[in-house]
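task queued by scheduler; priority normal; single chain, no ligands, no partner chains; default sampling; output format set to structure tokens
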Amino acid sequence: MTAPSVSRTPVRPPYDPELDALLAGSPLPAVVTPDMIEPLRAAPFTAPIEELLAGRALDHEVVTVPRPDGELTASIFTPRGRTSTGPGIYYLHGGGFIIGDRFTGIENILDYALHHDATVVSLDYRLAPEHPDPAPVEDAYAGFVWTAAHAADLGIDPERILLAGTSAGGGLAAGVALLARDRQGPQALAQLLMSPMLDDRDQTVSTLQYAGTGSWSRESNTTGWNALLGDRRTTDAVSSYAAPARATDLSGLPAAFIDVGSAEVFRDEDVAYASRLWAAGVQAELHVWAGGFHIFDGAAPTAALSQASLTARDAWVHRTLTS
């Protein structure tokens, strides 16, 4: 007689206890499906920029950035009263390629502007599925080229532009670094890749472990990549600029900082990317935070694990921008 099948939860690293309690009470869905994209875009999950700037001495200017077939909107944040030239931070927001805007997840980036006398340029790239690949990464590259070309006007030292991105924005930042190398474009000082979304192929252990759970599940990841790539997803037709984990040559890229939680979908692809950067002779600093879900530091900035991760990231930014 055949034994009845038993449904089992995959064995996986547990969430940090403090973060687990927060995740259990989160109103956000564990699984994002295509029909949820529009409602999520309408939901105000990011604090208004006026609120973020209320306690920060930063000037905010909205500018138009050209792209080959149109225009993009970007925000420029500059320490109030600054008259000297300083470093620049070019920031790309997260949101799985489908949601978010140039203010999403920018709090810590704004603090870097204050702490390091830096100018921040944050771009609204076009979102999928209305604007599939290559639109987002080409937008991101156009914004980076514009920032470098206008460095003098922005008070930015062109030799000290940090390329930064979170989640999907981290994947775009990695794609921009590859494009800049291959097109002989402006070179970033370094890459700050915060839990970057790098691989569309859904073949890692961590993607299987975090199905149906977390702040960005395997199913949500599938929704994002399908919106960006459509029928090309997982095929050989996908560009390494869209999914940087597919790049066969990582040599000649700027140094990178990569951090990720041990309890999230992106863990394995991010660890693999750091390892391949090292193999290509590129300096990389990697942090895997035990029990961290996707972007835990943004969801729970006062949690002990978040404080540790933010401290490590701040230290790298300081060393990089002052070296």
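post-processing summary
- The domain at 17-322 is CATH 3.40.50.1820 (Rossmann fold).
- The beta strands are 58-67, 70-79, 86-92, 119-124, 156-166, 190-194, 255-261, 284-289.
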